[in-house]
Specification:
The complex is a heterodimer. By secondary structure, chain A is an all-alpha fold. Chain A is globular and about 35 Å long. The two termini of chain A are about 25 Å apart. The mean pLDDT of chain A is about 85. In chain B, a hairpin with a 2-residue loop joins strand 1 and strand 2. In chain B, helix 5 runs antiparallel to helix 6. Chain B is globular and about 110 Å long. Classes of the chains: A mainly alpha, B mainly alpha. At the A-B interface, helix 1, helix 2, helix 3, helix 4 and helix 5 of A face helix 12, helix 16, helix 18 and strand 1 of B.
Chain lengths: ~100, ~650
């Protein structure tokens, strides 16, 4: 999972993910890095600033498909949900994620 | 009969037994029995103290019970009720209006007989109650062994179903042997099972001519080069070399790759192989086999083109089993030494069949979740949840009214994928973030509006820090410190630094976190509650979700309910300023009392379970549980 360092995660963070996370969440991180990178890049592009938090504390988000995540972002009619997510990652709920 | 059929049959029986054991424990029967018995006993006591008190008892209900347990009363129920009501009317007249007459000799006799019969009913109810409790205890004791047997048999089942080239070993034989030692089986059945076991292994050995041994990694690379894979794939193979060489089989690898190539040719070259992420394909060729891959491919193409999510999921292609047990067992996650087993973990996650069960379950509960739209609807995580976990989580959320009360725009379905949910909810309660204990502070009901907080990685560091802050700071200051001060339309936000810098504490470093825990908290075992480990293990294995209402009659619990329960709050005991999850305390106490009897340390354990706790707090809880706490011991690192 070395590629996560590109998103500001340290060796220690990656180790925490590998040892603490339920294996069902972590499989994609190991076996399908392309998908994970695409999702992260999309989140960054949409203005999500706390990427490190999202990776470490909402890893189940990455179980989803980029297509579905895009749909959630693009069909939301809430005005400031991105700020809310940056405020507290629980607010991914606001767009059903 | 084939071995797999024997195992499936046995598993089905075990699943039923397991379900039954939960049903019996949860059913209302027990509380109804208790209520009826108390009603009769209290009524007898009242009437014996003063016959005039018969006016105050709910007579129709009592006569109903009387007729339910006595058939030889010589009256119809209506006639009996009429007679006894006539007596009550007379007694009312005498007592309330001062009429100067008495009951007739017949009426007196009838009245005395009524009391006598009631005593008989009371006795019958007590006996029935005891029998019921005994039944529950027996079932609960049996549950441990049921779960253990399910786990073992599911493992053998997975071996047989998923992988047609692995022989069953000595450990597998022991499991089968334990099963056939069951006295209910006939000798013929025992023999059949042993022969099926032997036949299975014979088939494997004769089909392969040898038993799988380690294979050469260069051969594997060579095969993949032959099938047109480039350097990217070679890097992936090198990365998982150890796991591949120990578990893969050349014939299998070729068989699987060939199958997809043939499918391509038959269906106008879709290049199926290119649809798999490289790592996923390696997991599949290591742990699956051509027969299974073909079967799954046929199944998932029935509705048209397979979803992208299927190609990204090794378990869909490598696992055919379902898991129903492993209730509450400690998670068998990726430990430090299982890092090598990455491919294994991926290949043994939730199977396609189990996803179908999940889909059905969610639809029954009114969530229009479909496997075929999981890519667009972001429902993959909930569909991939182990079925038993999904069912349990639904029950827990329902129990805490978190399903009906959720007022978010959309219910975050991924919450159902949470592991160890009940312990998380208890902690949110004890940290003042759920249960509305301080209604003036918006954060005190944070969880209701931020349900997916349950589903975040289990942040032990943050939980530990919050337990410390909650105890050290005045209430208002605590909430100010942890909240971001901003709210969205449905609730407050927690401060960002709680997941980032943890208020300046560097707790993400494991050594520093250990030191932080030693500085601030104590371990219950062995110094303070010597049985704590035994109790914790039992609770984790059995994961009780709620308690029998009967436990509320326990004198100690009655005392908690009177002294520490907040008015109109089902969630909380407030013990000398310390918030304790009421459901946690009651369900843990109830489960331990049933299993271990009334030990003097189960009450204090039930209050302190799953908390980060310091000596002073444990002392408060011990006092509430009438438990004598030993003197404080120096933390390990200090001695």
């Amino acid at each position: 999972m070395e590629y996560l360092k590109y998103y500001n995660l340290t060796d220690q963070d990656i180790n925490l993910i590998a040892t603490n996370l339920d294996s069902c969440y972590v499989n994609d991180f190991y076996l399908n890095p392309e998908k994970i990178k695409n999702i992260i890049d999309y989140l960054v592009q949409k203005g999500i600033r706390n990427i490190k938090q999202v990776i470490m504390f909402r890893p189940q988000l990455f179980q989803n498909d980029l297509e579905g995540i895009k749909k959630s972002f693009e069909t939301s009619d809430l005005p400031n949900f991105i700020e809310q997510i940056n405020e507290d990652i629980v607010n991914f709920e606001l767009i059903g994620l | 009969m084939e071995l797999i059929e024997i195992i499936k049959k046995r598993l089905e029986w075990l699943y039923e037994e397991l379900d039954k054991s939960f049903e019996v424990e949860n059913q209302q029967e027990s509380s109804k029995l208790v209520a009826n018995q108390e009603l009769i006993e209290n009524s007898i006591a009242k009437i014996k103290a003063d016959p005039d008190n018969i006016i105050q008892v709910p007579i129709s209900e009592i006569v109903d019970l009387l007729f339910a347990y006595r058939t030889d009363l010589g009256f119809t129920k209506e006639e009996y009720l009429r007679q006894i009501k006539a007596i009550i009317t007379l007694l009312k007249g005498i007592n309330e209006r001062g009429f100067d007459f008495e009951l007739t000799a017949n009426q007196n006799q009838f009245f005395n007989n009524f009391i006598y019969q009631l005593s008989g009913v009371n006795q019958a109810l007590i006996e029935e109650k005891n029998q019921f409790n005994q039944k529950v205890t027996t079932i609960i004791n049996k549950r441990d062994s049921i779960i253990a047997e399910i786990e073992s048999l599911e493992e053998i089942q997975a071996k047989i179903i998923n992988k047609s080239n692995k022989i069953l070993n000595e450990a597998d034989f022991q499991i089968i042997f334990d099963y056939i030692s069951n006295p209910e089986l006939t000798n013929q059945e025992r023999m059949d099972i042993l022969i099926a076991f032997r036949n299975y292994n014979d088939q494997i050995v004769s089909a392969k001519g040898r038993i799988t041994t380690q294979i050469d990694i260069d051969t594997v690379k060579h095969i993949f080069r032959d099938y047109g894979f480039g350097e990217d794939m070679m890097r992936v193979i090198s990365k998982y070399e150890d796991e591949i060489t120990h578990n893969a089989d050349i014939v299998n690898i070729k068989g699987i790759l060939d199958y997809f190539i043939l499918e391509d040719e038959a269906n106008n070259k879709q290049n199926i192989l290119a649809k798999f992420p490289l790592g996923v394909l390696i997991a599949i060729v290591t742990y699956s086999n051509p027969r299974l891959v073909e079967k799954i491919y046929n199944k998932i193409t029935l509705d048209g083109n397979p979803l992208r999510a299927f190609y990204e999921d090794a378990a869909v292609w490598s696992n055919e089993g379902k898991r129903q047990a492993r209730v509450g067992l400690p998670h068998r996650g990726r430990g430090t030494d299982s890092k090598k087993a990455t491919l294994y973990a991926a290949a043994h996650e939730t199977s396609y069949e189990e996803m179908c069960d999940n889909e059905r379950f969610l639809q029954e509960k009114g969530y229009p979740v479909q496997i075929k739209t999981m890519n667009q609807e972001n429902t993959r995580s909930v569909l991939k949840t182990p079925y038993y976990n999904l069912k349990n989580n639904y029950r827990i959320l329902d129990h805490y009214h978190l399903i009906s009360n959720n007022n978010r725009k959309k219910f975050p379905l991924s919450v159902f994928a949470c592991s160890k949910m009940i312990d998380s909810i208890d902690r949110f309660i004890e940290l003042g973030l759920f249960g509305n204990i301080y209604p003036d502070h918006p954060c005190s009901n944070y969880l209701t509006n931020g349900l997916s907080a349950l589903n975040s990685r289990k942040e032990e560091e943050m939980m530990a820090l919050l337990y410390k802050l909650k105890r050290e700071l005045p209430v208002a200051e605590y909430y100010t410190k942890i909240s971001s001060g901003k709210e969205n339309h449905s609730g407050p936000n927690l401060a960002n630094y709680l997941t980032m810098e943890l208020l300046g504490y560097d707790l993400r470093n494991p050594d520093k976190f250990e030191r932080f825990k030693a500085d601030n908290f104590i371990e219950l075992a062995p110094n303070y509650i010597p049985n704590a480990e035994l109790y914790t293990d039992y609770i984790l294995r059995n994961e009780p979700l709620s308690f029998d209402s009967e436990i509320l009659n326990d004198p100690l619990i009655k005392n908690w309910e009177e002294q520490y329960r907040l008015p109109n709050n089902d969630y909380v005991y407030l013990i000398e300023g310390e918030i304790v999850s009421r459901n946690k305390a009651l369900r843990v106490y109830c489960a331990l009392k049933k299993k271990f009897g009334l030990q003097n340390d189960i009450a204090v354990f039930a209050l302190a379970y799953n908390m980060y706790i310091d000596y002073a707090t444990l002392n408060k809880l011990a006092a509430a549980a009438s438990y004598q706490l030993g003197p404080i011991k120096e933390p390990k690192w200090n001695t």
